[in-house]
Amino acid sequence: MNWQYGGIPLHPLFVHLTSVAVPVAALTAIAVAAWPAARRWLAVGAPIIGLVALVSVPLATQSGEWLEEHEKETALLERHTHLADGLLPWSVAVFALLTLWWAWQRFGVARVDGRGVARVVGIVGPVLLIAAGIGSLIEVVVIGHAGAVSVWKG
Q: How far apart are CA 50 and CA 42, in angstroms?
């Protein structure tokens, strides 16, 4: 696929989408894990935010791979592209956990007879959401920094 429009590479557009969507999804995961009012307020919006972030990552990655083929290869660019491959698993985790957490809050809690199950899920779910949120935040910052360095110092 030709990842340009009017001769301008689309990678910066998708990178900006990703650099906004992934942190918003990560902060959403942290908020719904730590703040019950956020769960009610965001409801199904949380998984939708996670989905936008998830979709943005392959767009940025694919357009970046196309751009890499059309640019001079440098060690800085290689580092950026290598790091970028690590963002998709974090985005999948954030989306999946947001979706599962929403489904659990919406459908699961009321149907569970044993309080032990509800207690375990009530502890493990938020811990996983916070961990995935923090991991994806760190990953997107490291990748973005490496990309900026490759553009401005490469």
A: 12
Distance CA 95, CA 51 (A): 6
Report the half-sphere exposure of 64 (CA within 13 A, side-chain side): 25
Residue at token pair 């719904």? 32
Q: Could you read off the pLDDT of 43-94 as tens digits, one per residue?
A: 899 999 999 999 999 999 999 999 989 888 899 999 999 999 999 999 999 9
Q: What one-letter code names the amino acid at 112? A: V
Amino acid at residue number 22: V
CB atoms within 10 A of CB 99: 16
Query: CA 154 to CA 135: how far, in whole Å?
Result: 27
Among 52, 102, 60, 107, CA closest to 80: 60
Amino acid in the structure at residue 147: G
Q: Which residues pair with 128 in a beta bridge?
A: none
Measure the CA–CA gap between 33 and 27, rounded to whole angstroms: 10
pTM reported for the whole predicted model: 0.91
Q: Which residues pair with 5 in a beta bridge?
A: 8
